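Write out the bound-state structure for 5-amino-5-deoxy-1-O-phosphono-D-mannitol.
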Amino acid sequence: MCGIVGYIGKQEKRALLIAGLKELEYRGYDSAGLATLEKKCPVLEIYKTDGKINALENLTQDFTSKGEGVGIAHTRWATHGKPSATNAHPHVYAGSAIVHNGIIENYATLKEKLQKKGHVFSSQTDSEIIAHLFEAQLQAQNLQSAPTKEQALQAFQKTIAQLEGAYAILLINTHFPTCIFYAKERSPLLIALAKQGIFFASAPSALSQASQMVRLEDGSIGVLDLHTPFKLEDLGTPSAVIQDSTQSDLEGFQTLMQKEIYEQYKVLTLLGRIKAQRVHLELPKGFLENLSCLSVVACGSSYHAGLVGKYLIEDLAQLKVQVELASEYRYAHFATQAKELLIAISQSGESADTLEALKLAKSLGLNTLAICNTQNSTMSALAHATLLTHAGLERSVASTKAVVSQILTLWLLALELGHKRLSKQALQEQIQALHASMQAIQDALELHPQIQILSAQILKQNPKGYFFMGRGVFYPLALEGALKLKELAYVHAQGYASAEMKHGPIALADCSLLSIALLPQNLLFSKNLSNVEELRARDGLIFAISPTPIDNATFQIQTKPYPHYMPEFFSMLVVLQLFALEMAQLKGLDVDKPRNLAKSVTVE
Ligand code: M6R
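---
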C-alpha cells in the first residue's frame, strides 16, 4: 500500500506535499518522508521520520522549498523492514531519490548483485534497490559529462525492466531539477496537470489542485518535465478528479469511526433502487439473465459481506453462490462454468488481491461485476459492470458504513435475481424487512450507553479470548464482530458458526473465555441457545446479544424485537461495531488508525 505524491512546478513544495500525504494517510501511516530539489540550487533536501504525517509536518516546520523545482513524498505501510526513519521513503543513492508503492519481489537477488559491486545499502527495504539500480545504469553508460534526459530515461527504463512485482515509482535526480521519472505496474499512479504545475499521486484525493487526471496503465514508464509541454491525452484517457477530500471534520464526534457508525442510516438511499415493487439496478440489459452460478471474491469485512450475500442470494434466488477470499482465488486452479458471474466486492475498489482475482476471472472469460464504494476506482474501471454502494467516503480504517451498504446492495441484487420466483407477497415482505432494517440501524444506536458500561465490565474481567458465534447470516456477522474487535482493541477474537464449537473450539471453554452469542428471535433461536448452554456448562462467560432475555448469560445487550431476522441482523451489527469501538477507546487506542493497518491494502 503506501501513498506517494509528486509535484513539478513553482509553488512552495513542502506544503503541497504534506497536504497530499494527509489525503493519502489512509494508505499507511507508520512513517513518512519527502525530498525536494530546486532548479536554482539542485541539492536533494530529504526529511524522513517514523510515525504519522503530523510527525513529518513537525519535523519540516522550518523548511520551505520555494521556486521552480520538484518534490516527492511518501507515507508508508511497512512491508520490508520495520517502521523507522531509515526505512521511510524517499530512498536516496548518489544524486537520486525515489518513492515507491508496491513490492519488489526480486529485490534480494538484485541487492546481492549490487552489494558485490560495492553498493552499500542504508535500509532494510525492498524499495531502496531502485535508486541504486538507476545510478548503476547511469554509470554503465560511461558518460563523460552530465547525462541528457534521454540517457537518464534509458537508464530508468533499464532499471524498471529488472524489477519484478508491483510498483508505482517516482524518481528525481539532481541533474534534472524540473523532471520526475515515473513507472507504474499493478500499483495505482495518477498524473494531473494544473496551472500550478504537474501532480502525481496514488489516489485522486491528493490531486485537489487539478480538475483532470490520467490513471496510468500498467507498463507506463516515462519522464515529465516542466519545460516540455504535453497533453494529458498523451498519457492516457483523462477523467475528472473527483474531490473526495478526506480532511473534513468530525462534525462533533470524537472519532471518525463513531461518526461513520452514526451515519449508517444514510444508506437508506439505496432503497431508492426499489420502484413499483421491483429492484432497478444500474446494470446493462440482460446482465443478470440465465446465470448458472455466482462466484464472489473479496477481502476482510467485504468478504464477510459477501458471505451474507451468499445466504441471501441462495435463499431468495435459489442460485448457487461460492464466496472466496480473493487472495486464495487468485492462485487457485478451478473450472469455470458457462454463464457464471464473478462479483468482486470492495469498499476502496483498490485492494490488490481482489483486483487480481477480478483480472483473473476476466481472463478466464467470466462476466464480472464490481460492488464498490469508490467511484472511479481501478476495480470499477476494470469490471464489465459496477454497482456503487453509495455509503459516502469512509475514512476510518475499520469498515462500518461501507459494510452495511455492501450487504444492502447484495440483498437488492438477491431480490432482482430472484424476482421471477418470488411471489408478490414474498417480495412485499422483503421490502418491509429492508425498511425495518434501516430503522434497526438507527434504533441500535440507543444501546450505545449500555454498551459502553458493559464494555468496561468486560474489560475488567480480562477474558483470555473472545469467541463470536452465530448461525446463518449471523455466522458471517460473528466473523465480522471478531474482526472488528481484533483490529481495534488488539485482543484475540475468533468468529465461529455456533454448532462448530463442539468440534474443537469448546476445548478452550472455561471461566476466562468470553463467548459473544448472537441469538436472533427469528432464526434458529433454540438451536443457538443449546450451543450457549454447552458453553455455560463448562463455566464459559456468555455475552448474549438478543431481543429475548437470556437467563444464564453473564452479560446481555437486549436488542429491539423485529418480525424478520434481517433487521435483527443489522441491529446486532451496530451493537458489535459499538462494542469494538468502546473496547478500543477504554484501552486508550487510536480507533481511526489502528496499529499495523491501512485503509486501502494495495499489496498482496
Ligand atoms: O477496500 P476493501 O473493501 O477491498 O478492503 C478490504 C479489507 O481490507 C477491509 O474490509 C478490512 O478488513 C477492514 N479494515 C475491516 O474493517
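---
Residues 299-302, 346-348, 351, 354, 397-399, 483, 487, 597, 600-601 surround 5-amino-5-deoxy-1-O-phosphono-D-mannitol (CB under 6 Å).
Residues 182 and 425 are 59 Å apart (CA to CA).
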